[in-house]
Amino acid sequence: MEVLLNDFSPGLFVVQTILLLALIFLMVKFAWKPILNSLNEREAGIEEALAAADKARTDMQNLQADNEKMLQEARAEREGMLKEAREIKEKMISDSKEQAKLEGDKMLKQAQAAIESEKKAAVADIKSQVAELSVAIAEKVLKEDLSSNDKQLKLVDTMLSDIKLN
Amino acid sequence: MMQVSNTIKTLLQLLILCFSLQSFAISDTEPEGAVSGKEQVDAYILHHLKDSHDFHLFSYTSDSGERKHVGFPLPVILWSSNGLATFMSSEFHHDDNGQVVVEKNGSKFVKLHSKIYELDAGASSVNFDEEHHATNAHKVLDFSITKSVVGVLLVGLLMLLAFSSLAKQYGKKKIPTGFGRVLEPLVLYVRDEIARPNIGEKHYRKFTGYLLTVFFFIWVLNLLGLTPFGFNVTGQIAVTACLAIFTLIIYTVSGNKDYWMHILWMPGVPVFVKPILAIIELAGAFIIKPFSLLVRLFANISAGHIVVMSLIAIMFTLKESLGVAGATGLSLVLSFFITLIEVLVAFLQAYIFTALSALFIGMAVAEHDHDHEHDEAGHEVADTEDVRADFI
Amino acid sequence: MVTYNLIGAGLIVIGAGLGLGQIGGKAMEGIARQPEAAGKIQTAMIIVAALLEGLAFGALFLGK
Predict the structure, then answer these.
(1) Per the CATH hierarchy, to which homologous superfamily does domain C1-63 belong?
(2) pLDDT above 70 (res B315)
(3) From the list B143, B171, B187, which residue is nearest A14 (CB)?
(4) Are B76 and B99 contacting, i.e. CB atoms less than 8 angstroms apart?
């Protein structure tokens, strides 16, 4: 403590007080006030700019969301239209298939019926022709075979044996 | 920016001019010559730690064996028993032992261990008692432009130039250029890391100017103390006392009702404890806080100077045991690293002085909405609590 | 007389050293636990250490 008090110079203290007061006054007036004011101003400016940027970003986001929504809607609409078209196409194909099948069936039946009737007619024709032919053959055979008595008797015998057998 | 560098250049030229014009070489009666022994090193360090009345740069021994000092004298302004006396310090002829008597305005002055004494009426030379204290002389009020005052003026001028040029830069554009880019973050640092958190968002603006001034004042002076010019301004107890008393006045004047109530009539404690706490708090507010501020800065800077100079003195004191090269090398390495630490300490002490000033101001202007606990141990505990409350 | 002062100074230095050790150690622990709060812890640490240092210096000078 003694050393401290001995080293303490009141004159220097007074001079230092005056100088420090002057320095504080001058620094506040010429340096700190303008510096701090402009720093505050700048900070306020930065804050404002940041807020504006924020706002712009949210606006942008909203806009983007709107766009997205519209795009979504358009896409959904397109999808719906495509689906409808596909359905129509399928329906048309299946309809035409069915119709074609029906038509084919019908034609087939007609053809079958025609064939059947032709066949019947042909069979009937063949039958009549066979009958005619057999009659003619029989006539010729009979004319040939019954020209003598022996032969007539022989035939009658044959016939009679056949009948017996039956 | 060019402007500032030009001004600095001009200042330097002026300084050199001063050296060349006013450098004075005066023969010395001291028989010892250059500093070499242990006692002389101690004396030299102690002498350096004190303020001096001339700006001493270096000394050498001329060919004829005379001791020459190079530097320039500073004006001495004294308020003696016969009124104001002014003369140049060169009139003491580098005497520091009370041998040379200067007579001005009917008073006789001597310089003894960096202090100027006025001889009592009728005496013609100083008499000493066995402890080497003068018996027939008394101290005078010494308003001299000492080396410390030169340092303060220099730093004040530099600060004004640097920061007013920074302030001017803002007028033209929003972002500073050149050296201003270094200064601006420092200003922001003091404002945002020291003033704002310690004082609080509501009141910090009023005190930022003072804190900024004090921070840069102490920091630059601390750094100036590390230069070879040998300033030891922040190691002068008068300077740190002045700074501490400024802080004391500021927080005493701006203290609000809560602050005074907490000092004089602490709420939340039994009545019989209140007067005891009031005494402790009063001592804390008016003695302990400023005393710790002034002593911390003074002791740290003085200790730093002593350590650096002692390590430099290894060059002389260990010359015999280690050899010239060994002693010089050791001294250079050690003092280099300690100087690096001192650069850090220079900033740290400026920061601590400013931060504690801000903290004390903050405690004085804080609005206590919480009824926080007070320990009977007194203000130190309250301090740490408040520190924590502010940082958490 | 001088010896007593020196003993007192030694005691002060021991006490201050212990205190500073506590402050530093606890701050390190805190930083290790919460590295993101390192800056705040350091600031608080320096200020508390400075308060202690002021006390120690004051006592040293009063004793001297």
Answers:
(1) F1F0 ATP synthase subunit C (1.20.20.10)
(2) yes
(3) B143
(4) no
